[in-house]
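Key idea: predict the complex, not the pieces.
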Amino acid sequence: MNSTLETLKMRLAEVVDLQRAAALLSWEQQTYMPSGGAKARSEQLATLQGLSHRLFIADEIGGLINDLKNTSAQWDYDTDEASLLRLVERQYERERKIPSQLVAELASTTALAQEAWALARQNDDYPVFQPHLQKVIELTRQQAECFAPYENLYDPLLDKYEPGMKTSEVQMMFDGMKEELIQLVDAINSRSDEVSNTILYGEFDIEQQREFGLRVAKQFGYDLKRGRLDETLHPFCTHFSIDDVRITTRFDNEFLPSALFGTMHEVGHALYEQGISPKLDRTGMDTGVSLGVHESQSRLWENLVGRSRPFWNHYFPQLQTFFPDAFSTVTQDEFYRAINRSEPSLIRVEADEVTYNLHIIIRFELELDLLSGDLHLNDLPSAWVEKYKDYLGVAPNNDSDGVLQDIHWSIGAIGYFATYTIGNLLSVQLFDCARKEIEDLDADISQGDFDALLHWLRENIHCHGSKFTPGELVKRITGNSMDSRPYLNYLHNKYREIYKL
Amino acid sequence: MNSTLETLKMRLAEVVDLQRAAALLSWEQQTYMPSGGAKARSEQLATLQGLSHRLFIADEIGGLINDLKNTSAQWDYDTDEASLLRLVERQYERERKIPSQLVAELASTTALAQEAWALARQNDDYPVFQPHLQKVIELTRQQAECFAPYENLYDPLLDKYEPGMKTSEVQMMFDGMKEELIQLVDAINSRSDEVSNTILYGEFDIEQQREFGLRVAKQFGYDLKRGRLDETLHPFCTHFSIDDVRITTRFDNEFLPSALFGTMHEVGHALYEQGISPKLDRTGMDTGVSLGVHESQSRLWENLVGRSRPFWNHYFPQLQTFFPDAFSTVTQDEFYRAINRSEPSLIRVEADEVTYNLHIIIRFELELDLLSGDLHLNDLPSAWVEKYKDYLGVAPNNDSDGVLQDIHWSIGAIGYFATYTIGNLLSVQLFDCARKEIEDLDADISQGDFDALLHWLRENIHCHGSKFTPGELVKRITGNSMDSRPYLNYLHNKYREIYKL
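Result:
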C-alpha cells in the first residue's frame, strides 16, 4: 500500500469527521436543541468549520498532494486513487486561495446579514437589509477576485456549488429556455380553468401523512436503519456518513402536498448519499458531487416519479384508504391533475414544475447584474418587480414576497440558485437515459417497484460520489453535455396533456 | 485586558468546543441515531477527542501558562484568572504526562474490551472478558506509572475523577464506615417485615410518569429552555454549554421508582451545570469540578429531597391524582416507607441508600487488590462472591449478576467507583450546611418551594464550576474535610424511624 496515500487519507478522514460532526450539530440545532443552546452551538460550529479548514489547507496536505502527483501516472483516470488526487488538488487550491481573514469576515458579515434579513423580511423593510447585502456582495466580489484570471467574475462563485460549470454555459442554457417557458406559462394561463387543486386543501391527519410518507420513502429504497425522518421548519437532507443519512419534513395538516412531495424530494437526496460506494468513505469523495446533480436526484423522485401517472396508478388507491374523507369520491385523474396544477405565483418554493425555473432565471440574472455593478442595490426591488411582471405576469405588493423571500443572499450563497434549475434539467436528461436502459420502467412504477430504477441510479450516479466532475458524470451517462431540450420537451408533453393545449 | 490571557482563553475555547461537540455526538448516539450510524460515530468521536487532546497539550499552551505564571502574582487566589491558571496548569501537566501512544492503545483496547464485556455479560461467560480486563489493567497501571512519584499507584487514577483526593483518605473513610454499615444492614434485615414496597409495582402510564417527572424537575428549578428530557437505555446528564444541559431517563411502566427517582437524580446533575457562572463559559472551568461533587448534587435532590417526608407532604396528593388506581387507598406514610425500603441485593444500580455504599466499597477494595497484584484475575469472581457474602450476606449465582454487572472496568474507568460514595457522603455534609443556613428548609420543601435551597447551592457550589478543587470547595462551605460521620448519622436517624430499630 502507498504510504503517502495512506497518510493523506488519514488527514482527509480527520477533516471529513469534523465536517460530519458540524453537520450533526447543525441538524440537532434544527430538530431538538432548546432555544438556550443557540449561542454555544454557533461557537461550536465556527470552531469545527474553522478547524476543518485549517487542517485541510495545512502545508502537509499540499506536500502529500505533490508527492502523489509524482507517482500518479500509474493510476488509471477512473480509479479511486486518481479521482481522489484530482478532487483534493482542486479543493486544496481553491481553499488556499481565499485568505483566512476574508473567510472570517464573510462569516461574521453573513451572521449579521442573516439576522437583518429575517427582521427585514418580517417587517417588509428592505432598507434594513440593504447595507448588509451591500457588504455581502462586496466581500463576495473580493472572494471571487481571489480566483483571477477568470472568464467571468461569477465563475468562481458558481464553481463552488457546481464544479466546472461556467457562467457562459448557464447563460446560454437559460436564454434558450426563457422565451419558451414564458410562452408555455401563457398558454397554460389561458386555460387555467382546466385544472383545480382545491381537493388538496382540507384536513389531513399528520400521523397518517407521516405513515404514508414513510411507506413511499421505504419503497423508494430509503434505508431507515441508516437514516431517520424528523420535523423541521425548513425540510432538508443531511448526512453524517454513508450509513447515517437524515431527512426532515414539515407537515401541514391543511395542505397535503407540502409533506408528501417534500418527503419524496428529501428522500431523493438521501438515496444519493446512501448509495455512495463504501470504498469512498471518509475521503471527501463520499458525498454528492454538486448541488445540481444532487437536485437532479431529489427532483427525479419528487417530480418524474412522484408526480407521474404511473406512480399514482399504484399509490392513489392507498392514499384513498389513508384519507377517505378527502379522496373517496375523487378520481385518480382529478388527483393527478391537481398535484400538477401550474400557475404563476410569487414564491419560489411553492412554484410548480413549469414556473419554477423562471423564478430561478430571475435570480440568476439579478445576481449577475449586481455583481457586475450594472444594477445598484437601491434599484434591486424594482428590478425584481419588473422581471416578475415580464417573465411570470405577476408582481409582489411588498418586498417580503419579493426580493426578501429567500435566505440565500443573506448567507452569502451567491451562485447557488442556478443549481436548482441545473438539477431540474439534469433530472430529465438522466431519467430519459434510465427509461431507455430499463425495460418497461413505467410498468415497474405502476406496480410500486422501484428496484430497477434505484439500481440504475446507484450504478450510474450514486456509487461514484464525487469521483468525477458533474460534467464528466453527465457525459459518461448521457454521452452529451447538459441540455435544456429534454426538460422542455418533458414539460410540453406533460402539460399539453393536462391542460389540453 | 491581558493579551496572553486572552490568547490562552481563545485556545481553551476551541478545546472546550470540541469536547462539547463530542458530548453532543455521544448524546445523539444514545437518543436518536439509527443503528447504521455507529461505526462513523465512533470514528468522529475518536477524531474530536484526539484533536481536543492534541490542541490542549500543544507547546503553545504550555508557553502561555508559563508567561501567565510570571504575571499571576497580581491575581487574588479566588479570582477567575488565578483559578483558571491553576486548573489549566494542573490539567496540562497531567495530560502531557501520558504518551499519545498509550492514550491510543487504551482507546482501542477498551473499545474491544467493552464489546467483549457486553458479550460476556450476556452469556455469563467471564473467561471471554478476562483477557481483555487483563490488558485494560495492564495499560491502566502503565498510565498510573506515568505520574510517579506517588504515595499509591491508585492515586493518579482516583485523581482523574476526584482531583486532589488520595487513596489513603478514601481507604480511611471506607474502613471507618464499613462495619457500621454492615451492622445497620443486619439490624434492618432482622426487621424486614416492617416495610413493603409492593405498591410500587403495577401499571404506571408512561405519559403520566413523564408529566409528573417534568413537573418536579421544573419545580426543582431545571430550566427547560436550556435543557430537555429524552429517553435512553441508561439515564445520564450531559451538557453542550451552560445554556444547554440535557437529561435522559428510562421509563418502566410496571415499576414507578425507576424514572421517578432517576429523573430527580439527573436533574440534580443538570442544576449544577445550569448554575455555573456564565463568566466561566468556554474556559474549562465551566463544568462541575469532580464526579464526587457532581454526585453529591444528584444524590441531594434524589435522596435528601426526593425520598424525604417533607417532599411527599407536598407531592403525594399530586401523585395520587396522577395514579389513582395505584395510590388512592395508600397512605403517605406507606408510600414514604415503600420508597425507602432497604434490602441487601446483588445489583448496585438498584441498591437503596444503606446498602449502596457497600457495593462501592467492594469494588474499591477489589480494584486496589487487582492493581497491586494481590488479586489475580482468575480469582476475581470468587473474591467478588466472598465479599458480597461478607458485607451484604447475599451472593450471585452467576457472574453476570456479579463481577460482570458494571461497564466501568471494560471502559478503563478504574478509580471511578469511589466517587459514587464520595457523592453520597458529600450530599449529607452539604445538605446539613444548607439546613443550618436556610431558615426552615423542611417547611419550604413541604410546600414544594425549592428556591432557597437552589439559591444556596448555586451560591456555594454551582456558580464556582471548577474554580476550586473539590477539597477546597468542601472546606469553604463546611469548614471541614470530607467526613463520613454526617452520612452515617443521617442513615441511622432515617432508618431507625422507618424500621423502628
